[in-house]
Amino acid sequence: MNQRGILIVVSGFSGSGKGTLMKELLKRYEQTYALSISATTRNPREGEADGREYFFKSKEEFEKMIAKEELIEYAKYVENYYGTPREYVEQQLEAGKDVILEIEIQGALKVKERFPDTLLLFVTPPTVEELHSRLVGRGTETPEVIASRMARAAEEAEGMDRYDYLIVNDNLDTCVRIMHEIIQGEHRRSSRNEEFIQNMKEALKRNVKGDE
Ligand code: ADP
Ligand code: 5GP
Fold first, then answer.
1. Would you call 17 exposed, middle or buried from its count of C-beta atoms within 10 A (0-12, 13-18, 19+)?
2. 160 lines ligand 2 (CB under 6 A)
């Protein structure tokens, strides 16, 4: 059955482990998923490379991308722009890959509005204490930035129930498996298999008539 890929949005509090999860999911199921690389105006963190974690852009470059409608969606998050380039997403969906956008909630809701069959997944650590300790443990942000990300998490929690599934990232290995199972289950939804259903109906009708 040759099915177009599913567009999947993964959101979650900064520090919930989305990046770690995505890396592991793609490593295990390289042929199944494609991860969209966003454009952003924030500075690269240590170890991040242009074109791998993000396309790092100046504010002017980013605003040009907006004007040329090169982004599916974009949002401002803690003083920086983040957005999803359109072309890669369309190509990969067409090729039958499930495309994952790891984006925050404003962007997620815009994508859902524009493409209603998008699957929305929300990743959370088991507790607030664990969230804080992961942000501190990552060691990439100043205490002020950590505080602003915790404040942003409180705002984002207000939208958690607008997602299709909640994914608690406690044990990483279990979490990767659950995420894969949810997505695979989504492929079996009857509304995503209309062509198969139609063919089956027609073949059965022909069979009853004795044509086959
Ligand atoms: P996000 O992309 O959501 O901001 P990261 O993937 O950068 O989060 O993870 C934040 C920190 O938490 C990192 O130091 C990462 O190694 C750690 N982490 C991720 N998942 C888990 C997990 N299941 N258990 C413990 N620590 C984790
Ligand atoms: P970070 O700076 O930690 O890499 O990302 C900050 C937030 O921006 C995260 O919640 C991340 O999911 C979100 N984000 C990353 N790329 C995009 C994007 O293309 N669009 C939107 N709307 N959010 C994004």
1. buried
2. no
With a CB cutoff of 8 Å and minimum separation 6, the contacts of 138 are: 15
Is 15:127 a contact under the CB 8 Å cutoff?
no
Ligand showing the shortest atom-to-Cα distance for residue 179:
1
pLDDT of res. 78: 79
Cβ atoms of 167 and 175 closer than 8 Å: yes
pLDDT tens across 166-208, in order?
999 999 999 999 999 999 999 999 999 999 999 999 999 999 9
Q: Is 36 in the pocket of ligand 2 (CB under 6 A)?
A: no
- The ligand whose atoms approach the alpha carbon of 22 most closely is 1
Distance of CA 107 to the CA centre of its chain: 10
Kindly write down the DSSP assignment for every residue of 64-130, as one continuous string: HHHHTT-EEEEEEETTEEEEEEHHHHHHHHHTTPEEEEE--HHHHHHHHHHSTT-EEEEEE-SSHHH
The rounded mean pLDDT for the chain is 94
Ligand 2 centroid to residue 178 C-alpha, Å: 23
> Does the CB atom of residue 82 touch ligand 2 within 6 A?
yes
Rounded CA separation 181/34 (Å): 16
- 3-class SS at 38? strand
